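Much of our argument rests on the idea that a fold can be written as discrete symbols. Part of our work consisted of pairing the sequence of a single chain with a tokenised description of its backbone. We regard such an encoding as a compact summary of how the chain folds. The amino acid sequence and the backbone structure tokens for this protein are reproduced below.
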Amino acid sequence: MTDTHQSQHDIALDLIDLDRYPIADLDSGAGAEFLTECQRLMDEHGWCNLAGFIRSEALEQLNGEANDLLPTAEVLHVKRNIYQGAIDPTLPEDDPRRKEFTHVAVQLADDQIPAETGLKQLYHSDILTEFVRRVQKKDQLHRCADDFQALNVVALHPESWHAWHYDTTECTVTLLLQAAETGGEFTFLPNSRDDHSEDREAVDRLLAGDMSQAQTFSRDAGAFTLFRGGYSLHGVTKVEGSQPRISAIMTYDEQPDRVIDDEINVRIYGERVKKILDSRSAAKTTRG
């Protein structure tokens, strides 16, 4: 079950290479075979990477939108532990909750991406949401209800990287809009935790610099990658060269109306979002 069906034309039909990736009909023929293969990859590896998912002319449009919007974005200095929280100095020194990781990115939150853009319309595609749901084998899946985290555009400039972290929702999809000249590789530790436990030995080794159990792969622009970001510790290696690595991050949740804690959103998005949340809180107090 997906979000409420939209009556207007679904933009996924225009942007996605449906000959190569027949996501509009997953119940028969080539579409059913494709879905089975995506599910197999998720089960075996914890990820499914679809190169050239977006048609070349459509990719030019989406990347153009991102580059037009990014000058209005803030440079975010995100400091957090791998669980998106603040460090706790009372814990043992080897506890991951005590280790702080920092990355610097130019980042647009969902509320900064206009509804008329192809990027926002693609994220709100029922066809795409249904495809993600079925690959992830969920009974229901909804686009994230959070005003800031639902859809993001992230630019990592040369000498920047994305620090190790778990996502705040289980199902995350990334669409690479512009690849780095070198570096900027998506790296993750597949299925490093579940709802009840975490493979602390593997996590500790990765945080100490041992990449032997991590999976790393390069992607070209237009690649669409599904993975379980809430259950797989992941990050992006240092970007090198002269151009930024730009990606759209799409989040989904089994709960239809779940939003992210204000503390986490402020830690990620900084003063702009803090002012918005403070203003909302003041308005509620006044009405009360």
